[in-house]
Write a structure and sequence with these properties.
Length: about 140
């Protein structure tokens, strides 16, 4: 059944990308910290990061504290007294790009092992999956 294939393929793909990403971090920061770093890069605040990563705001706050301490993220005053605007430091952005580029190279190396039809099918399948996830999120 197609739903069973979706339930097995997506988690496998996510685990594979996580493993690749984690190995690229080489002990710099944890994978969870990298996920928060990536969300900061996308311009998200702590509440939105919490929702996207499905972790508590307190956990996000701890991750952000560590990233600030490591000088990978900086806090600036937000729109109100209770909020902070988060941005990546130069070092934080450099780390994010390094990991992203390493994972992209690994993917590219393996994509070369697929034939033209498989590449076309993959591109079309990902496009359809993206559309399906958009429909699921519409509710």
């Amino acid at each position: 059944m197609l739903t069973d294939l979706i339930f097995s393929s997506i988690p496998f793909a996510v685990r594979t990308l996580r493993r690749s990403c984690a190995s690229s971090l080489a002990g710099e920061i944890t994978f969870q910290q990298f996920r928060v770093l990536s969300q900061v890069h996308e311009g998200m605040g702590q509440t939105q990061i919490s929702q996207n990563l499905q972790i508590s705001v307190a956990a996000v706050s701890k991750f952000v504290d560590l990233l600030v301490k490591r000088e990978l993220v900086k806090r600036a005053p937000g729109e109100d007294r209770r909020s902070h605007r988060l941005t990546l430091t130069r070092e934080g952005d450099k780390l994010r790009r390094t990991v992203h580029d390493a994972v992209a190279r690994e993917l590219q190396r393996n994509l070369k092992k697929l034939n033209k039809q498989e590449l076309s099918d993959l591109e079309q399948g990902l496009s359809v999956l993206d559309k399906l996830m958009g429909l699921v999120n519409e509710k």
